[in-house]
Amino acid sequence: MNILNAIIEIAEQAGQAILEIYQRDPREFNITDKADATPLTAADLAAHQLIVNALTELTPDLPILSEEAADISWAVRQHWQRYWLVDPLDGTKEFIKRNGEFTVNIALIELGEPVLGVVHAPVLAKTYYAAKAQGAWLKTAAGSQVIQVSQTAEVVRVVGSRSHPSPDLAGYLARLPQYQLVEVGSSLKFCLVAEGVADVYPRFGPTMQWDTAAGHIIALEAGASVQFDGISGPVYQREQLLNPNFMVSALRQS
């Protein structure tokens, strides 16, 4: 089994662990607030533990940075040339709302750039994946197919956050002559651009590196551009784990 197939399997196993909790009474989600006031559930922790154990067995020499174990100092991280960047449950608010728009994100980072990524949406039964120079793919019950961006749009299809509205997004939309806004949770926003369902994902609110890395490589391999404000070098080799604003676009610049 090659490493990409192994990561797909790990992400899907984590998704199954999440679903087992998702299908319970919501009172059993064990919701608490982290220091940054974002929610944490039993599903986040179960997926985290499964992924960390599986990655450690698969690649024992590679370090892992997960949202649920992110207290690793820059003094240590700055020396990592290859590492796993993981969000065990991206879209915890969507999980709590039970709308199905949450994902498992696993990315392999080399020299600060994503070179492999898997985004698995358990409720939707979809797995998006990509590796550098190997294209982007979507796996469903019917099999796997190559996905590519759409580069023609008379009406710009903009994908935005369902749970994190932004005044800056409203200002961006006001400058477009025609648009359709699709609101969706988690890293699915990257994936909708990658598969040609949306054209632009402008992000003006806060995200963390583990929120974006897997979707980043999928969007790139599908033909989109991904630009972070003020970052010209490696996106994922920085002391600051908080991302600046960014833009994912399938549209050719005129």
UniProtKB/TrEMBL annotation:
What are its GO cellular component terms?
plasma membrane
Q: Which residues bind substrate?
A: 67, 89-92, 211
- Residues given in the record as Mg(2+) 1 binding sites: 67, 87, 89, 211
Q: Which residues bind Mg(2+) 2?
A: 87, 90, 211
Q: So which domain of life are we looking at?
A: Bacteria
Q: How does it sit in the membrane?
A: Peripheral membrane protein
The record's Pfam families line, in alphabetical order, gives:
Inositol_P (PF00459)
Q: Which UniProt keywords apply?
A: Cell inner membrane, Cell membrane, Hydrolase, Magnesium, Membrane, Metal-binding
Q: What GO molecular function terms would the record report?
A: 3'(2'),5'-bisphosphate nucleotidase activity; magnesium ion binding
Tell me where in or outside the cell this protein is found: Cell inner membrane
Cofactors needed by this protein, per the record, are: Mg(2+)
What InterPro entries does the annotation carry?
Answer: CysQ (IPR006240), CysQ/Inositol_MonoPase (IPR050725), Inositol_monoP_metal-BS (IPR020583), Inositol_monophosphatase-like (IPR000760), Inositol_monophosphatase_CS (IPR020550)
Q: Its principal location?
A: membrane
One of its GO biological process terms is: sulfate assimilation
Q: What is its EC number?
A: 3.1.3.7
Q: Catalytic activity, per the record?
A: adenosine 3',5'-bisphosphate + H2O = AMP + phosphate
Family indicated by similarity: Belongs to the inositol monophosphatase superfamily. CysQ family.
Kindly give the HAMAP family that the UniProt entry links to this protein. Answer: CysQ (MF_02095)
Summarizing the function annotation, the protein's role is: Converts adenosine-3',5'-bisphosphate (PAP) to AMP.
Q: Any idea what this protein is called?
A: 3'(2'),5'-bisphosphate nucleotidase CysQ
Gene this chain is encoded by: cysQ
